[in-house]
Design goal:
Strand content: under 5%
Radius of gyration: 18 Å
Structural class: mainly alpha
Keywords: Membrane, Transmembrane, Transmembrane helix
Order of helices and strands: HH
């Protein structure tokens, strides 16, 4: 049960990572478009920053720390049993 739960958490973190990566590339392209006076969605990106991208970055950071701690604790417990 614990392994299945961790598997789903890791899958959610991977999906969240790709959302954050998508947001970064979208920002880079939109800023380049803004410099070239092309409407590539910079205003929409700004509107989505607070409600979507900021929580996604926070979840990614927290999930990465929690996943790392869980792996470290599991490794320590397994080495203590041996």
């Amino acid at each position: 049960m614990k392994e299945q739960f961790l598997k789903w958490i890791n899958l959610a973190l991977v999906a969240d990572f790709f959302l954050v990566l998508f947001a970064f590339f979208w920002l880079a392209i939109a800023v380049a478009g803004h410099v070239l006076h092309l409407p590539l969605g910079l205003d929409l990106w700004y509107k989505l920053w607070q409600p979507v991208f900021t929580p996604a970055i926070g979840i990614l950071m927290a999930g990465t720390i929690i996943s790392g701690l869980a792996s470290w604790v599991t490794k320590r417990l397994n080495s203590a049993e041996n």
